[in-house]
Amino acid sequence: MDTSDAQSDLVEVLFTEQQIHERLAEMAAEIEKDYQGKDLLIVGILKGAVMVMADLARSLTRHVEMDWMAISSYGSGTKSSGVVRILKDLDADISGRHVLIVDEIIDTGLTLSWLTSNLSSRGPASVAIATLLRKPEALTMPVEAKYVGWDIPNEFVVGYGLDYRERYRNLRDIGTLAPHVYS
Ligand code: PRP
Fold first, then answer.
1. Cβ pair 103, 114 in contact under 8 A
2. Is 151 marked active-site?
3. Strand partners, 177
4. What is the pLDDT of residues 103-122, one digit of tens each?
5. In the predicted model, is pLDDT for residue 76 greater than 80?
6. Neighbours of 18 (CB within 10 A)
7. Which residues contact 42 (CB under 8 A, 6 or more apart)?
8. pLDDT value at position 26?
9. Model confidence at 60, in pLDDT bands (50, 70, 90)?
10. Which residues line ligand 1 (CB under 6 A)?
11. Are 87 and 115 a contacting pair, CB within 8 Å?
């Protein structure tokens, strides 16, 4: 087992834990304003969204329900295959409810574009997206995100839920990986 320090594999920190918490608090305030008086179900997309869900939900002071989905967008090996499958569906029936999908990153847009239309077909009152990060240059599918933490360049980022080969999700900050890690 590799017991080296994960943080030391970052070449640059893009967002610190504190910056992330501050931004999520701002997003939570917007969400509370927009969904005032409405029933709200937030849906986290496993596994990457675990950290964002935990911190965003705790920044909300209103009642909110949490549910989870697991989705595979690597059907036949690569993301470009465009194959999306549900590995774990919602427990909740969303008909007539306001649904907010929470994810940590929109990259090509494939996952959330597919998921938005899937959830929209279940008769919810509304479906919207909150994402901590978005890569506008990488988008290949149209995805409308109502709440975006930051737009970032098309670079490989890890930490705070984002992984490289299942590692680095547990880093508190978000940063770019040193090339020696993947070369
Ligand atoms: C990430 C992220 C999004 C998706 C975005 O999940 O959580 O759901 O990729 O990429 P896209 O816009 O190109 O579809 P991933 O499939 O890496 O799974 P994970 O959350 O388990 O890491």
1. no
2. no
3. 10
4. 999 999 999 999 999 999 99
5. no
6. 10
7. 53, 56, 57, 64, 65, 66, 67, 99, 100, 101, 102, 130
8. 98
9. very high
10. 45-49, 73, 79, 103-111, 163
11. no
